[in-house]
Write a structure and sequence with these properties.
The chain has 194 residues and is an alpha+beta fold. The chain folds into two domains: 84 residues, Glutaredoxin (3-Layer(aba) Sandwich); 100 residues, Up-down Bundle (Glutathione S-transferase Yfyf (Class Pi), Chain A, domain 2). Helix 1 links the parallel strand 1 and strand 2. The protein binds glutathione.
Length: 194
Amino acid sequence: MKLYYSPLACSLADHIALEEAGVDYDSEAVDLKTKRTASGRDFSEVTAKNYVPVLVLEGGEILTENVAVLDWIAAQFPQLGVSEPLGRTRVLEALTYVTTELHHGFKPMWHGGTDDDKAQARNVLGAKLQYVADTLRGDYLFGDTPSVADFYLFVMLLWAVRFDVPTPPALELLRSRLKARPAVQRAMAQEGLR
Ligand SMILES: N[C@@H](CCC(=O)N[C@@H](CS)C(=O)NCC(=O)O)C(=O)O
């Protein structure tokens, strides 16, 4: 299994999930500007979508789209999902919120938005993070242990620090709690992050 990632991109969630799962995997960084992998390969040969994450499975199948990749990882390693009757659906609900409401909300910050665009995005993202804080079920989104949705949320919380997005205290705690986990530290170290 091989993960294509870019440092501090949304693929960090998958990197963390694989480390938390304790599975053997390879990984290779992708330069998202040049679209070259660290070994010099043209990334469009891996995926015509040209974005991360990409997870290449043992049989050579290629998974893209963060929600699908994280859902697949949680299906292989149920400790990274939620074990209740609606568990998988709740995790998909949370992953979809993160990708459509949070991740996409950062576009003006990553893609040269105007100062007005960025200020507006900060307000909207702050309100959406407040919604997440209000619905936490415990130390993590769904209770005492983190799921793949927490790992994707974690990346958004790192972006919030980087771009000065107001973050509710409960989510600052969640960020610190996740950052203290050995698997998270290993994934971040592999991406050259602190
Ligand atoms: N629809 C994709 C979007 C993934 C995405 O936005 N990846 C970013 C990094 S966070 C990327 O690779 N951007 C480079 C590009 O789009 O050229 C998903 O949900 O996985």
